[in-house]
Design brief:
six-stranded antiparallel β-sheet, alpha+beta, elongated, 488 residues
Length: 488
Amino acid sequence: MLLDAVLNVGTEGELAATLQHVVDSAADLTEARYGALALAGPAHGRGPDRGRSRIAELFSVGLSDDERRRITRLPTGHTGLLGHPGSSLSLGVPVRVNNDVLGHLCLARKRHGPFTEEDLALLRVLASQAGIAIGNARLYGTARQRERWIEGAAAVTTALLSGETAADALNTLAKSARILAGAAAGVVLLPTDEGGMEIVAASALDDPGDIVGTNIAPGSPVLVQLLSGEPVYIDDSATDPRMTTHVRSRFGPSMMLPLQSGGRLIGTLALPRKRGGRPYTAVDRLLATQFASQAALALVLADAQHNRERLAVFEDRDRIARDLHDLVVQRLFATEMMLESTRRRAGEGELSDLLGHAVDELDSTIQEVRTTIFALQQPPADAPTSLRGKVLRETAGAAALLGFQPSVHFTGAVDTLVEETLHTGLLAALRGALAAAHRRAGVTSIDVEVDATARLPDGRDGVRLVVSDDGERAEGEEETPVTWETAR
């Protein structure tokens, strides 16, 4: 019967069914009325209960629901698990995995006489089998857990390198880590200019809206530890004095893992569980730390890839601008000169008027193409929003073709006095003036002035743009600066 019981222990597919089978077999083989196998949770308690572990899981036979509820802690040696004094009426042995005691297997009230040494030996064999089953289940669980973290890290790396924006990449990291860790939230923090850290991405079971934007002040103990490259493990975020953010009250166990590459801290990954949640194990911490290291490398690679793509766009736009300038504009300009020469030889008349109109159209086309060339010199993203920044951006783009930087002057608080609705007209006038200046021979300097305190001829407050250059004028053309103005 004992051999059958031992062999049957290994045939159950689930750990819970296996451990219940151990208790049933122990009670049957020893003719005990009551049997229980209790697995330990974390130690708690004060006074006489101090150091005693609470029961995390209980498998029993012969006990009522009320009796099961009264069993909350493992035995101390003075009384059995089932509440009977340590005598021939009860019998108990520890369940071990390696040298760690994970629980107790106990029996009580043998039907015929007291428990014997043979019963104790049998119970030890079954407790050993229970320990083996628990150990194997833990190894399998750890292997599956490790496999999930590895798959998750690979998925995050793929997502980060697939061309996502920076914000989407950080949200992907936060969500994936939260799911893998079984956390209530996944949070990514980045360093601030002031020396602290700010939550920039969050994934939570509840609405994470009030989490994003939370700051960790410079010099806080948690930040000092993170900046040194060390992870921070918290048993209870709500009560740990190192935690200072307003959202800490909703969380319990937490891990804060540095995201670093090449010895440089680029951010932090925080994985808090809800209040009262199970603590992170040593395996949890190890796997999450390895995940954070790979995620940090993926973030660096994704950033480098994004920069390479932006550089490729810049280079392509610059090539197009050069081709337009060197080929299209030059050919259009040559055609314009040929038509102008033909018009002069044709004298007065309808043909001369038609040729003059064609020259004007070509001149306008050349100006528009040059304006496009200037626009292509601008970065395609991260455009400034202030008028001052937009004007400087336009003149910087023109400098790439002019060979020198136009001089820019601002009068008055242009960013606050000039409404955004006026920006488009002013910038269009500026582009046209720069293109016209570039067309003139001998241009070595261009002056741009934006005056937000200008007084219009009708007495209204206005904004005025004046663009002047030292290029050569056609015969009879005055050196009059280009002026654009409007009321504000």
